[in-house]
Amino acid sequence: MMITAAIAVLALAPPQSATQPASLEEAAGWTLIMEDGVFQRRRGPLSLGENDTVLIWTAALPQPEHAATLGAVFQRFELDCPGHKIRRREGLVVEPGATATTALDGGDESWGYPGSQPPWVARLLVDVCTVTD
Length: 133
Hints:
This protein has helices at 5-10, 24-28, 119-128, and strands at 3-4, 31-35, 39-48, 54-62, 72-80, 85-94, 102-105, 131-132. The protein is an alpha+beta fold and 133 residues long. Strands 2-3-4-5-6-7 form a 6-stranded antiparallel sheet. A two-stranded antiparallel ribbon has the order 1-8.
């Protein structure tokens, strides 16, 4: 029987708030998705959304040499694993030296597919929605 790995792992994951991201310190310990010379992109624990979707916070944390000038960006994504699609629900930023988040925007209402996403978002969908026996 095919089971979506993300759904099976949800029972093992610690609870994650659907309305606010973790602290910068917690996010630094999340799973690394991708990094470049400017940001480390990390993903947090998974939680179950409506209609068997998966909710996940991601963080773009500036590399140490950019931390004084660039803010950290948190984004919450909703993944529809069977449909192999994703949408960004909200985005928040923590400016350098600040501890509170500021909203970037309200997110996307429509679903996107891997080919229409930045490479790290497409990889997130593939990594989380891997199907196993």
